[in-house]
Amino acid sequence: MDRRKSIQTIILGAGASALAFHGCKTEGEKITQDIPAAEDTKYFGRTPEELELIEKLDAEQLFNEHEMETIAVLSTVILPPKEPHGGPIEADVPAFIEFMGKDIPEMQTTLLGGLMWLDHKSNTEYGVEFKNATLEQQKAILDPIAFHDPEIPLEEQPLEIQFFFLMRGLTVTGYYTSKVGIGDLGYKGNMPNVWDGVPEDVLAKHGMSYDPEWVAKCVDQSQRAVIAEWDEKGNLLT
Amino acid sequence: MQIKESSEVYDVIIVGSGAGGGMATKQLADAGLNVAVVEAGPFFDPADPKTMTQLKWPYESPRRGANTTRAFGEWDMAYGGWEIEGEPYTHEEGTKFDWFRSHMLGGRTNHWGRISLRFGPKDFKGKTRDGYGEDWPIGYDDVKPYYDKVDKLIGVFGTNEGLENDPDGFFLPPPKPRLHELFYIEGAKKTGIPVIPSRMSMLTKKINNDRGVCFYCGQCGRSCSVYADFSAGSCLIFPAQKNGGRVKIFVNSVVREVTTNEEGKATGVSYISKEDRKEYKLKGKVVVLAASACSSARILLNSKSKQHPNGLGNSSDVVGKYLHDSTGSSRAGFIPGLMNRDVSYNEDGVGGMHVYSPWWGDNSKLDFPRGYHIEVWGGMGMPNYGFGFSPNEFNKFFNLPVGGYGDSLRDDVKKYYGSVIGFGGRGEGIARKENYCEIDPTTVDQFGIPVLKFNYKWSDLEKKQAKHMQETFEELIHNMGGTPLGDTPTKEQDYGLLAPGRIIHEVGTTRMGDDPKTSVTNKFQQLHDADNVFIVDAGPFVSQADKNCTWTILALSWRASDYIIEQLKQQNI
């Protein structure tokens, strides 16, 4: 545990905005507690068996070079890059889809078959593989399969619709679970902080307010570092 | 192959290191006894950066948190799951039981929800109340002093509300509700359902100098690296060692049986080491089983001898019987009032809910005898695998097209982020002799130990309770201005009632009682048939209550430990 950091350093080190300190404003007592370094990504908490499985999957190849390029092109049509948070390429979406196809083999036929369908359709209509078609041509191929009837179970819909649903899902999930995607979403969590309730302006926006009686029972964050003591009836004294 | 026998005789051998085993370890070692803890899984310390998943980002993994190797997602801190390779279990045809096992130091306490509810006075006397099941041989007053001590030792936040069957305690102050929880409070008020701050074992305030304070990452399921939530290793076993206690931990050691002598008393345990696949014997004056209700029943049933031909402690034929899990049925709803969230702040909070609803109903006016509480989830959580898979499905509620591609998907994701609320009803099922686990003589695990066969069916009472849950959830969602997602589960679908075992509150397999003919242990969790064997997991529970079982396991394990210390002092065992 040689790479321990205090909460304060982690907050600063993570480059949090001033807003991340919102909850700390009322902080009267500083707590210095060591949190083991969370950036040790070699293990990300895997057991030896889990690491072995990842190595095994990494050594396998599901898609050939052409298919990987097609996935890259398709994912970018699905979710075009946008400044400043990039798009599927910056989010490593193609590599993520390759890995998931091996990790959840049930998806393989839909993915492989769907890619073949794309090229077949593109070749038939335009005499060119999907990845080399113009954006207009690509959209013309995707439009009929991109909107499904949500009332009909997906597995009862044609393969190409299932394929597009899956590709869109993997693209969006891959993007929003990436560093750039989390930036685009604006999620502010996964770092040490002090929760002290929903900010006033957010409450107002949603027409909500705290019941003063309820809040009176809640933690006084200025006393969090003081060891709890009670009277014999269970009333907190500290 | 010769069985290797240790020469050391321990005062106490404890099998299992979860809530029950951890508490027994702490109390017995603190009392100066020489303790051996035998755990089937590896050593685990939540503070070890090598195994730590807390504060990891989804992109640190190639599968972005998907649940391929861990049932609740790859950051969840439970080694094991519903199925464990080489360690099967079987079922009687036409019955169901899903068994979640976690083999590691601290067991399932490393990932549990930390919902820490005391049973109330009515919960110990179910049969008196409505005629179903059996009364406990003890009452709330017997357990109250131990609940009080557990509150103070381990720490639980909550509030004293003066409710009859949801007793007050020694609580740390709760965190303020999140936005979706304020919506819930309002919706529940309209529905006539009470809401109070949750009661969960995370430290919102310092409780001693050895454990940290919650820093609100919402990841208690990953086990807290500063020990700000309760896990049996970090809060009981390590402190017992630090206190100078004699605690020897045998990890990767799978107990096969309790060994007994000519008088039928326990002499220790035999176990198989996963490291060399050889069988070993440990000697002890007292054996405490805390392997989980079903695993302890399995060990007893496999401990057959001349003196105990039907399995140890099983002269009553009750071991394995009365197995019951909490009932569970869930529903989610889309709440338009929670659309277009402001993401300027961190609302991770503690892991799980800040508010909940204890049972409010009057069962004498309902068609099912026991209650349930409502758990609430929602909010702007960290994206993981599956996030945004159907980014604009809720467009259907606005007559807008579902699907598509392009820049609009980004807007859709943000528009609907945090707009779903979910409910879990967790209720009490009736303990029945006909629901049981037994040894399957046809099947062994990879260690050659005969495995469990389950036989469990819900009755109409539990199904009617689940129906009530679904009706309540739909009313709540409507009163929050929302729309329930998916179709209402039908009668054919048991109203969404999950398979037995799914709530992971297995209890009742070695129930306590005053009559040795109808119970396995006495009211101090001591086997009627062998006075130096105790059970401190949830096996001795006579009934479950609509409360989660951990706080009661801890209180009863402490109580049983005090009794063991007293009996050893008096040289009765």
From TrEMBL, chain A:
InterPro entries with a match to the protein in the record: Gluconate_2DH_su3
Protein name as annotated: Gluconate 2-dehydrogenase subunit 3 family protein
Organism from which the protein derives: Pelagihabitans pacificus
Automatic annotation (TrEMBL), chain B:
Protein origin, superkingdom: Bacteria
GO molecular function per UniProt: flavin adenine dinucleotide binding; oxidoreductase activity, acting on CH-OH group of donors
Cofactor(s) this protein requires: FAD
Residues covered by the Glucose-methanol-choline oxidoreductase C-terminal domain: 439-556
Domain Glucose-methanol-choline oxidoreductase N-terminal: 139-325
Matches recorded under InterPro entries: FAD-dep_OxRdtase_2_FAD-bd, FAD/NAD-bd_sf, GMC_OxRdtase_N, GMC_OxRtase_C, P2Ox-like
Sorted UniProt keywords: FAD, Flavoprotein, Oxidoreductase
Record-linked Pfam families: FAD_binding_2, GMC_oxred_C, GMC_oxred_N
Boundaries of every FAD-dependent oxidoreductase 2 FAD-binding domain copy: 11-43
Keyword Flavoprotein on entry: yes
Keyword Oxidoreductase tagged: yes
Family classification: Belongs to the GMC oxidoreductase family.
Protein name: GMC family oxidoreductase
